Amino acid sequence: MAILATLISAFAPIFLIASPFTSYADQILSIHRTKTSAGFSLDIPLIMLTASILKIFYWPGARYDVALLVQALIMVGVQILLLKVALDNRPAWRGEGPFRAVVEEEDDGRPWGFWRWRSQRLYWEYILLLTLLLLALHTILNPTSTSPYTLLIGYLGLAIEATLPLPQILANARARSCKGFRLSVLANWLAGDAMKMGFFFLSEEDKVPWAFKMCGIFQACCDAGLGVQYWVYGDGEEEEERGRMPRADVRFA
What we know:
Blueprint: H1 2-34, H2 43-62, H3 66-88, H4 120-141, H5 148-162, H6 165-175, H7 183-202, H8 210-233, H9 237-244
């Protein structure tokens, strides 16, 4: 066990820091290459950006492991790029006004069509306003490790991140297909869960707060459910190939 803990302590930080690239680079390239983000849930950048920004502001009070802070900083950059590529290549818009849903199927009753906006500017304004709000609160409250504010944003950010697979699970269930969601992303999520669980529970107790551990367990269970979906539904390529097959020309003599 001591050898395993030593290996995980040595390699897990490297894996965690690289995980934003390994998890989402293929998805970004796929959307850019196919010129469509159909099948990809825009809620993934929403969840990861919100959670990562909250985790960054959680660090001054909690002083958790630096590798997790660096991961959050890199994740913000990667998710901004993913969001930009997904918005540039989203399906055709139908509706009226900047606050209407981009596509009718995605208008799921959110107030003001939140995160289903027509205008890209509103997405960037949300990210900027969230950052400025947290910066102002941090300056005014000067949080410590035991302050309610520190605990609140820590648990809130990690709880939001733990829900990451849920929008994709719901989108797959509605479509009964995993088309548009890359297997490489799922594989990296599952590998990341295994690495994080080892790092969280085998590291020194004061390096990783319990908020990381509890939310990590929940997210790992959700990722496993997404894996079951991929096994049941597949990626939709077989159905697409069957749709392109020429139909037999049946004539009666």
